[in-house]
Amino acid sequence: MSLVHEIDFGTPASRSEKLVTLTIDGRQVTVPEGTSIMRASMEAGIQVPKLCATDMVDAFGSCRLCLVEVEGRNGTPASCTTPAMNGLVVHTQTERLKQIRKGVMELYISDHPLDCLTCAANGDCELQDMAGAVGLRDVRYGYDGDNHVRARNGGDINMKWMPKDESNPYFTYDPSKCIVCSRCVRACEEVQGTFALTIEGRGFESRVSPGMHEQFLASECVSCGACVQACPTATLTEKSVIEIGQPEHSEVTTCAYCGVGCSFKAEMRGEELVRMVPWKDGKANRGHSCVKGRFAYGYASHKDRILNPMVREKITDPWREVTWEEAFAHVASEFRRIQYQYGKDSIGGITSSRCTNEETFLVQKLIRAGFGNNNVDTCARVCHSPTGYGLGQAFGTSAGTQDFDSVEHTDVVIVIGANPTDGHPVFGSRLKKRLRQGAKLVVIDPRRIDLVKTPHVEAAYHLPLKPGTNVAVMTALAHVIVTEGLFNEAFIRERCDWSEFEDWAAFVAEPQHSPEEIEQFTGVKADLIRGAARLYAKGGNGAIYYGLGVTEHSQGSTTVMAIANLAMATGNIGRPGVGVNPLRGQNNVQGSCDMGSFPHELPGYRHVSDDATRETFEKLWGVKLDNEPGLRIPNMLDAAVDGSFKGIYIQGEDILQSDPDTKHVSAGLAAMECVVVHDLFLNETANYAHVFLPGSTFLEKDGTFTNAERRINRVRKVMSPRNGYADWEVTQKLAQAMGLAWTYAHPSEIMDEIALTTPSFAGVSYDYLEKMGSVQWPCNEANPVGSPIMHVNGFVRGKGKFIRTEYVATDERTGPRFPLLLTTGRILSQYNVGAQTRRTANVTWHAEDLLEIHPHDAEQRGIKEGDWIKLASRSGDTTLRALITDRVAPGVVYTTFHHPDTQANVITTDYSDWATNCPEYKVTAVQVSPSNGPSEWQQEYDDLSKRSRRIAGKLEAAE
């Protein structure tokens, strides 16, 4: 094994189709027009010395190391800023260039510490490499006089020296080692788009500064790691490298956080992870990362991880550690007993959106072939199930239409119900880059998210709608497009059902759907809606990106269909730069849906009632499959309370914290006789579990994830499972204990079975993924290299379907008792229920959930910044601290759900989407009042958690 090395070409690639040919050091080189001489040289295998250049950012030309000579031209131009042209004759190594480079390098070294042997970057330092490359053997200038290296000069305090900044939990900033190449500043601006870094001072006084001479932690830095990755010296260094040393081998794998699906190099020493470095060839992230994927992997080795199986008879008993064999036998025995006593349909399971495709496939197979029913569901039920239904109805397939590269070709972006800079930060950075290049932005969100106005980005329109009125606003946008004749008739006649369009157009054109009519109950000014509609219809390539602020409503599916209507009406489907793009929340929520995790669908979104589909699986599995849909998660809990559902296998989901109406979830779990939790930690759901099966992290397994753009990416094992088994092995052994003769030796064999039975995956195999890097489904005989863009020549369903989207107000209403509307979301540093990120240094930025409240609402209630407040709804109440901000409108409050201490979902109701049962997290009528601390319910819950986490023989309860 060795490190995965990536070539740094010095400057970004040119996209020009026109080619130019030049001669470099006697070799003819042909490159796209606009390519720098530096990159052309590197592509020919000629490495020009450089320090300020890297291919992740635009050329800068400041270090003066990459100079070349060009025949017929005076001087020594910088190769990074000089474009290749036809007929140029370039020399990269002459006596004159050698002397200049040595002189430049001497100046750098004369103001740089010479502690190379003990420096954390020893062996991975470009300054060190370049000193060797130019042949520097001596420094004539000495180290006396002005410098940034020593704290004292001749006993006097050196005012130019600055101490190391250790404030960031993940990396250090040592100003004494900075060569002011500006790579970190440019990475922060061009790649991340935060503009948190600058160069303060001039000349010899220059140095990198976070913000206005602040520490990194206090600045606007979001800890994405782009500056650390760009730094050519040890100025910015991961603390893990300082502690462990340089890595000696690496594997390319896929991040296990959000649905962007970033590719990383896991760099190792033995079985110890040194750091995660974003992989430039990753087609989802293109070499960028966020704080979670880059740094928040410490949970994998956290002391809270449970490594041994445990059982208990009652949830009031302490846990008892057992062998794997005992655990499997116990689960199999209990599930058989329950089915014998209560019937075949009395047990079921929930698949994980954090586990691999292969593991998810096995869980649904276990339920269908082993349990003999279709009682399987997944977390998509509570997030993007309306996406599956809505897009399936309109387009014929249950997934987004574009790849992430598509955003580079868009002219107008609508972001509705999503907060990409927090929830999908790497995509958010790519989006901001396109917006800085001139694309226009429309934000539809009750809250003023960062994209509304951020450095060098400002939305053309922000539509701050009242929570729960998405359908009305989307239909009003359509009203403007139809009544003003802005629709694309040619596209509609060719690609859609014209009669259905006419019916839909007549519907949206009705006066009650006009922006003026809906303004009174949506709170959005009519001129904003009209302006946004005209911009989307007439502004060129129009793309819509949406998130849980669309789907987690009682009309979630209706809003998805309204979005599809808008895209079809304007012809914004089937080419780069357009499309309908759901931003999936978890790393494999797309894959869990693809793998047949819904109770009515087998893998590939084929209904269980279809005889031919069932026959495919029945022949392969050797069992008869049920042709009736099973129970959804809410139905399972209802049935448990009613006494007919008694056992459940939950892999990698924490439904007690993530699902709505916490009291109902806990009542359902408490009514079951065998709850099996398969996870990394004793999560909140495990409070009600009878069996705990320890899980494995993404670092400890092989498999695949499918991201929000339908991209199937490899997950590669870089260390042995600390619990002894990868999750797919645990499920297989449980199946074997239940009498199923499964004999998979490797996840690749599971993928082969997926490809054999699922048409959209027919061309996928591990060998093919090794060859291609990644592919986007459908990948089959008709689409051998995958499908970056969907519906290119026609919709999957044939003709695109326009569907009427009548606005129906939610049953959740405000009133005198509950006058405010609560909506929920995520924050950058935390992920979902926080089980992983809360066990990392990310808590530095978000140690607790806070309630955002408008100054007007806070003043009316006598609430000040940081006060404890009581948040109450018809379902329950909790307490948390107040954050007073005008990000939210008067009458609207907002919080996150990352911390179980708060349990925000004790507030949310059981209202749900009419088509899919996706909960209405985003609209809850609440009241806010001052409080003295935790509520009675929180105290009771805390006591329950402590009791339920006792482990026999251990002194303390597991956290």
Mean pLDDT over the full residue set: 94
From the spread of the alpha carbons, the general shape counts as globular
How would you characterize the largest beta sheet? Answer: 7 strands, mixed
Q: Name the helicity range.
A: 25-40%
Widest beta sheet: strand line-up: 15-14-29-28-27-16-17
* Percentage of residues in DSSP E strands: 15-25%
* Estimated structural class: alpha/beta
Count of beta strands: 38
**What is the count of helical runs?**
29
Specify Rg, calculated over alpha carbons.
Answer: 29 Å
Low-confidence stretches: none
Compute the separation of the termini in Å: 36 Å
Topology:
Layout: E1 19-24, E2 27-32, H1 37-43, E3 69-70, E4 89-91, H2 95-110, H3 126-133, E5 152-153, E6 156-157, E7 171-173, H4 183-192, E8 197-200, E9 207-210, H5 226-230, E10 236-238, H6 239-244, E11 249-254, E12 263-269, E13 272-278, H7 291-295, E14 310-311, E15 320-321, H8 324-342, E16 347-351, H9 357-371, E17 376-378, H10 385-394, E18 412-416, H11 420-423, H12 425-436, E19 440-444, E20 453-454, E21 457-458, E22 461-463, H13 470-483, H14 489-495, H15 498-508, H16 515-522, H17 526-538, E23 542-546, H18 548-551, H19 556-569, E24 579-582, H20 589-594, E25 601-602, E26 606-607, H21 611-621, H22 633-642, E27 647-651, H23 655-658, H24 662-670, E28 674-679, E29 691-694, E30 703-706, E31 711-715, H25 727-737, H26 747-757, H27 766-772, E32 774-776, E33 820-825, E34 850-853, H28 855-860, E35 868-872, E36 877-884, E37 892-896, E38 924-930, H29 936-948
Parallel strand pairs: 1-4, 16-17, 16-27, 18-19, 18-23, 19-22, 23-24, 27-28, 28-29, 33-37, 34-36
Antiparallel strand pairs: 1-2, 3-4, 5-6, 7-10, 8-9, 11-12, 12-13, 14-15, 14-29, 20-21, 25-26, 30-31, 31-32, 33-38, 34-37, 35-36, 35-38
Helix pairs in contact: 8-25, 9-25, 9-26, 10-19, 13-17, 13-19, 16-17, 22-24
